[in-house]
């Protein structure tokens, strides 16, 4: 029964890892992967000395940290609110509405965002013009910083409903006698949340954070590419490693440098999760992943 799953992981995950040698080679199509000449760390050197490496590394980590904090924080708040709701039908309706964005493609979201912020015909500028104001060019480099808020908002909008399900399940597993004991002691709703709910779901929060920390250098390619598009004026602010690799392959075909970028990305993620898990294990071994 385990064999099909093992074969899938082996064929689609481990065997393709042999392609990592491209990060250390000057790939030539006529020679193939293994016959292409070795260049050592030249691809990595070019990636960083060009000034691109550190910039997109910072962008990737920055966006992932703020998206992690906002989406997970809102998911915890929503899960607690749902737990305290007593109107059953309104609760089910609210859960369905919040969960719905998870099923909407980033392509649809990207089109939706473009129709809001387009300079000539976007909904935002149409409203500003109607009020006699000056249109806002969101796709100009001068306003690139506003895309941090746009990405953060739509990332939370799409993922908060899905993430809240995990925390709702964790809260559901809390022994109800703890709440009854808190009621007897005269605790109000906020005291029960602080003294009963939060300590009970803390292990779940830590595990979810650990799993996401391992992806600090992996951006959601579809989200960034569909929201921002191929707009060079916004690259300094919004470009992450995944979008940079995609565009580099499309425009220059430099397989060696892009392989070096993804190799660096994977090693960074591995080191990050190992370090953070080690810190958690030193603090509280029960919360560590391994």
How would you characterize this protein structure?
The protein has 290 residues and is mostly helical. It has a domain at 59-237: Orthogonal Bundle (MetI-like fold). It is 70% helix and 0% strand. The chain has 14 helices and no strands. It has helices at 3-14, 32-35, 42-49, 52-84, 88-99, 106-117, 123-130, 146-172, 176-184, 189-213, 221-228, 235-238, 241-251, 255-283. The radius of gyration is 23 Å and the shape is globular.
Notable characteristics:
single chain, 290 residues, mainly alpha, MetI-like fold, 70% helix, 0% strand
Kindly report the average pLDDT value: 89
Q: List unreliable stretches of 5+ residues.
A: none
CATH superfamily of the domain at 59-237: MetI-like
Q: Distance between the terminal alpha carbons, to the nearest Å?
A: 25 Å
Question: Which series of helices and strands comes N to C?
Answer: HHHHHHHHHHHHHH
* Outline type: globular
Structural class comes to mainly alpha
Assembly annotation: single chain
Determine the strand fraction and express it as a percent band: under 5%
Helix content: 55-70%
Sketch the major β-sheet: none
Question: What CATH architecture label of the domain at 59-237 applies?
Answer: Orthogonal Bundle
CATH topology of the domain at 59-237: MetI-like fold
Number of strands: 0
The CATH class label of the domain at 59-237 is Mainly Alpha
């Amino acid at each position: 029964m385990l064999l099909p799953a093992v074969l899938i992981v082996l064929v689609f995950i481990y065997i393709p890892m042999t392609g990592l040698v491209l990060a250390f080679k000057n790939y030539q199509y006529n020679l193939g992967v293994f016959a292409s000449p070795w260049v050592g760390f030249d691809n990595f050197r070019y990636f960083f000395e060009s000034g691109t490496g550190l910039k997109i590394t910072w962008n990737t980590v920055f966006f992932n940290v703020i998206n992690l904090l906002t989406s997970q924080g809102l998911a915890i708040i929503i899960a607690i609110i749902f737990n305290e709701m007593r109107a059953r039908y309104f609760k089910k309706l609210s859960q369905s509405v919040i969960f719905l964005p998870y099923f909407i493609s980033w392509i649809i979201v990207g089109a939706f965002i473009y129709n809001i912020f387009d300079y000539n015909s976007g909904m935002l500028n149409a409203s500003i013009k109607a009020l006699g104001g000056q249109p806002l060019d969101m796709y100009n480099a001068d306003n690139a910083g506003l895309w941090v808020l746009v990405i953060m908002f739509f990332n939370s909008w799409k993922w908060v409903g899905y993430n809240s399900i995990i925390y709702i399940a964790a809260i559901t597993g809390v022994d109800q006698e703890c709440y009854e004991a808190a009621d007897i002691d005269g605790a109000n709703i906020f005291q029960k949340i602080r003294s009963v709910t939060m300590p009970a779901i803390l292990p779940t929060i830590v595990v979810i954070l650990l799993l996401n920390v391992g992806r600090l250098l992996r951006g959601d390619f579809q989200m960034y590419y569909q929201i921002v598009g191929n707009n060079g004026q916004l690259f300094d602010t919004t470009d992450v490693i995944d979008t940079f690799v995609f565009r580099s392959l499309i425009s220059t075909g430099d397989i060696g440098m892009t392989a070096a970028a993804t190799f660096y990305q994977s090693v960074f993620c591995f080191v990050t999760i190992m370090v953070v898990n080690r810190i958690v294990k030193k603090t509280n071994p029960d919360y560590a992943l391994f």
